[in-house]
Design goal:
Elements lengths: L6 E4 L5 H10 L3 E5 L3 H10 L4 E3 L2 H5 L6 E4 L3 H13 L3 E5 L6 H14 L3 E4 L6 H12 L5 E11 L8 H17 L5 E7 L9 E7 L5 E7 L1 E13 L2 E6 L8 E4 L2 E5 L2 E5 L4 E2 L7 H15 L7 H20 L3 E2 L4
Parallel strand pairs: 1-2, 1-4, 2-3, 4-5, 5-6, 7-10
Antiparallel strand pairs: 7-11, 8-9, 8-17, 9-10, 11-12, 12-13, 13-16, 14-15
Length: about 325
């Protein structure tokens, strides 16, 4: 892929190293920064043509960089995005955009007023398997949507600075909003902190989208096995996206139907049908989209508007979990 973007990566740790690898493969990696000098030395050996900086401020002062990709702790996202936009850079930032709704709106306005690209890393919306689910639902393969649930659970990685809701659920919320096309009208959320005070290790959120459409999301980092599964139930069938499986078992459509024998419901079960999808790496697809938006000045698929929707649902869930009471979304 040819592109004119010159990208610097802020944060080269757990996920940042994957950004380095993909941006380098796409010919766009020009610099990176990290406060960990050991990490800097390691990556400098792998990417000798990219400049290494010991601070975000140094990288953002590099005028040859046209864009930055941010992969740092979530609490730092908002301020780093603001600094990068102010420095005149296009910005990719891993989810969440920030932790505050008011700040998210300000960042969107700042990007728009400066003519900058602002893209948020809701990775699963670029996953070919999820795209196949979304296209199947849009075609009407399973009829009108009735229920969606998503599990994102594993044993670790345990955080102390953000809870499981904020760490895991943005992925699932972004998929759910993409499928429903709207925000929930009512949210119930429960969670529990066992390891660190006030840092929930698990949460269960229930959503009422109106018009008889319901959903729930379960997230936990204290689960005996990895379970990354999205189940979409419609009037004429069901689709399961199980990201722990591979090949033709990753996305399955179950064309079960409910028929009636007089006044008695009769369930017509059917064999699962694999849903085809491309085998491309989701992060590579996401980075290609970012670079294309930098080139064409198009608004990204996961722009600030989409991120604000996800953030608003996270905010509702957190407030419902903290208060222990359901929350209704304010009428717009």
């Amino acid at each position: 892929m040819s592109n004119s973007a010159s990208v610097g990566v802020l944060g080269t740790g757990y996920w940042g190293k994957n950004l380095l690898r993909n941006l380098d493969a796409l010919g766009a990696l020009s610099a990176f920064s990290d406060t960990d000098t050991g990490a800097l030395e390691m990556h400098a050996g792998t990417y000798p043509d990219a400049r290494a900086y010991t601070s975000a401020q140094e990288l953002l002062a590099d005028r040859s960089l046209t864009a930055v990709a941010i992969s740092t702790p979530a609490a730092t996202h908002g301020d780093l995005v603001e600094a990068a936009l102010t420095a005149g850079k296009d910005v990719f930032v891993e989810k969440p955009l920030c932790l505050d709704l008011d700040q998210a709106h300000r960042l969107d306005e700042l990007a728009q007023s400066g003519g900058r690209v602002l893209m948020i890393g809701h990775l699963l919306l670029y996953h070919p398997a999820f795209i196949a689910v979304q296209e199947s639902v849009a075609r009407g393969d399973i009829g009108r949507l009735r229920y969606i649930y998503s599990n994102r659970a594993s044993l670790g990685k345990i955080r102390r600075e953000e809870n499981a809701l904020w760490s895991f659920a943005p992925h699932d919320i972004s998929m759910m909003l993409a499928l429903t096309g709207r925000l929930p009208e009512r949210v119930v959320c429960n969670g529990e902190a066992w390891l660190s005070p006030n840092v929930a290790d698990m949460s269960l959120s229930h959503f009422d989208f109106g018009e008889h459409l319901q959903g729930h999301i379960f997230v936990s980092w204290m689960h005996p096995f990895k379970d990354h599964r999205l189940v979409v139930v419609g009037e004429d069938g069901m689709i399961v996206f199980n990201d722990t499986l591979a090949g033709d078992q990753k996305v399955l459509r179950y064309p079960h139907r409910l028929a009636w024998d007089g006044v008695l419901p009769m369930l017509e079960k059917a064999e699962a049908v694999p849903v085809p999808y491309r085998a491309d790496e989701p992060l590579a697809e996401e980075m290609r989209h970012f670079l294309d938006c930098c080139e064409t000045r198009a608004r990204p698929r996961t722009d600030a508007t989409e991120a604000i929707g996800v953030l608003s649902v996270l905010d509702m869930c957190q407030r419902a979990m903290t208060s222990g009471t359901p929350l209704e979304r304010a009428a717009e």
